[in-house]
Write a structure and sequence with these properties.
The protein is built from 19 helices and no strands. By secondary structure, the protein is mainly α.
Length: 480
């Protein structure tokens, strides 16, 4: 049987852009698509940021410097795996027209891994298993986000991509706050009330079998409440992502079958060819992919390590971290939705650059004024939350405006690959900065020095973004 190899132009240069300004928008599809962000957000908010990660760097698992650096290293390793796997899995979805099918499996896998975190007990022997599950879940979460992003051109048009992207991202933040508050008062507080501390085996009378003393109810992430929250988060993910899988089905991508059976090596060869074709046809897309890789890594680091810094540097109790997280998600959600409207008016590039300037300023304030206590972190932290979401959403909408018709999966796969190709950078800079700070100050808690690593990456992203131009004239004309 003979096969036909498409030329570069036939492969990528489809007529027109994926976003059609004249295409009607279905409110039902937009809502169901946004509910996926709402449904999966507990993994980002509860697992990675405000609950499980803080629980995992607690004193029950080891010294503060050791657990903080272990978390940073784990995040870096997960980023490397995302960079290696995203192009292969993304191309496979395009070839088999299976974006939604794959997204279902990724989502269900994420729910299963979240549920497994229930078995991570507060003991040093469980640190490595907890970090391993966290890393695998992070990889699956990132790859699932690629599939969800590639559906954007199906639910949005050229006229409203900014506001719909912002709406989806904002829904994620809102889902984060609702789930965080629900599980805090329902499961974490219940675990505290039951008096289950670091010990998992207690008598009905609340006696510590190791010492024979009565266990006191303590404020904090004391085992059972956090672990039950992992189960609740898994159910949340399964429940709220269901509407998307019902209302949006896989679509046929013309010509995708020509590249079936490439294999792992062939997929990476095709990745290089895709970049080459994009360079010829839409050079600005390639430039943006490289620039966004840096600032997106810095944005991810803000949320990945923000709660850890609040806890270890500013002395936030677990309950205060959750209250801060709730406020942060409200601010970020509302700001992202509002900036989505601005995105459609002034363009995503201006939104990104403005956001980065304020993020660098607020992060610098956190480092310089860290001796000012919790008030400093509340003010500067809320300032950070105002601009993280808008920068993330505008980055997605910028790329969506440039994607050729029929190639959303391929280009968003490159978006993930380029982003994760340097995803080790911010966690590594964070980890190295802590090590330098510990060496300079001699302190066993130099966590606030990690902020300097994040600032460095944000500055790199801002400098790279200055080279990027507004979306091409043809793309802007299509969405005008």
């Amino acid at each position: 049987m003979s096969t036909t190899t498409a030329s570069p132009e036939e492969t990528l240069a489809s007529p027109g852009l994926a976003l059609d300004s004249a295409k009607p928008t279905s409110g039902k599809k937009v809502l169901s698509w946004a509910l996926w962000d709402w449904g999966t957000q507990p993994y980002n908010t509860i697992v990675i940021t405000f609950v499980f990660a803080v629980y995992l760097v607690g004193e029950e698992f080891g010294s503060k410097n050791y657990t903080s650096q272990a978390l940073g290293l784990t995040t870096s390793i997960a980023g490397v795996f995302v960079a290696l796997l995203a192009p292969v899995l993304g191309q496979n979805a395009d070839r088999n027209n299976s974006t939604m099918r794959d997204l279902r499996w990724y989502t269900w896998g994420l729910a299963g891994l979240t549920a497994l975190l229930f078995f991570i007990k507060p003991s040093p022997s469980f640190l490595i298993p907890g970090l391993a599950l966290l890393a695998i879940g992070t990889v699956i979460s990132e790859i699932a986000q690629v599939s969800n992003n590639s559906v954007l051109d199906e639910v949005a048009s050229g006229r409203n991509v900014g506001r719909i992207s912002g709406f989806g991202w904002g829904m994620g933040y809102m889902g984060g706050i609702v789930s965080l508050l629900l599980f805090n008062f329902g499961l974490i507080a219940a675990g505290n009330f039951m008096g289950i501390s670091s010990y998992d085996s207690v008598t009905a009378g609340g006696i510590d079998p190791a010492t024979g003393e009565e266990i006191l109810i303590q404020e904090g992430f004391n085992g059972l409440g956090v672990r039950l929250t992992m189960l609740g988060s898994a159910v949340w993910i399964l429940l709220f992502t269901l509407p998307m899988f019902i209302s949006i089905q896989d679509r046929h991508i013309p010509g995708a079958e020509k590249h079936k059976g490439l294999g792992v090596v062939g997929s990476y060869v095709e990745l290089v060819r895709s970049i080459g074709r994009l360079w010829k046809i839409s050079r600005q897309t390639v430039v943006f992919l490289v620039a966004s890789a840096f600032f997106r890594d810095g944005l991810n680091a803000i949320f990945s390590f923000g709660a850890v810094i609040a806890s270890l540097t500013f002395g936030f109790s677990p309950g205060e971290v959750i209250i801060f997280g709730a406020a942060a998600n409200i601010v970020a959600g509302v700001a992202t939705m509002l900036f989505g409207l601005l995105d459609d008016k002034i363009g995503p590039r201006k939104v990104i650059l403005t956001s980065l300037v304020f993020l660098i300023a607020m992060a610098t304030a956190v480092f310089l004024l860290h001796d000012g206590g919790k008030t400093v972190f509340w003010i500067a932290g809320m300032g950070l939350c105002l601009f993280v979401g808008p920068a993330q959403s505008a980055s997605r909408s910028y790329l969506a405006r440039l994607i050729p018709a029929g190639h959303a999966g391929e280009v968003f796969g490159l978006y993930a690959t380029t982003g994760r190709a340097v995803s080790f950078l911010a966690p590594a800079c964070y980890t190295v900065a802590i090590a330098i700070g510990a060496s300079v100050t001699g302190s066993d808690n130099a966590t606030h020095w990690g902020i300097l690593g994040i600032i460095f990456v944000l500055i790199l992203g801002f400098a790279a973004m200055l080279v990027v131009k507004d979306p091409d004239a043809d793309a802007m004309l299509a969405s005008a």
